[in-house]
Amino acid sequence: MNEDKKTKKKNLQLINLETPETQSHFKSTTSTPIINESSLNTHKHLSDMSQKQSSKRQKRFSTEEEKIILEQLDNFNSVPPEEELNKIIVTLNELPNKSDIWDKNRIKTFWRNRQQTIKKKNKT
């Protein structure tokens, strides 16, 4: 009978199905933490998420040549038209040190960031 209780206790600890009634009993008789597959998976998932987040966003630095080409965007008060974006992409692709980061979305992001910088400089 005593061994049967120990087996039940171990089984409950392994699958972490403690009920409120048994939980207080286990707390008083056991001092080791309960580790189950679910908690390990959660930890692994959180670890994977942090790795994805750290590799997802990177600061990108524009070369001086790229900045000169992208200055054409300063003439636009709203998002530049598609034909202008295409011209800029072609020009950027003709550079000797061609970078793969420039596409329409990246150029639009650059333009938005540049507009914010210009507004801040004008305020001061």
Automatic annotation (TrEMBL):
Compositionally biased spans, kind Polar residues: 19-41
Domain of life: Eukaryota
UniProt-annotated stretches for the region Disordered: 19-60
Name by which UniProt lists this protein: Homeobox domain-containing protein
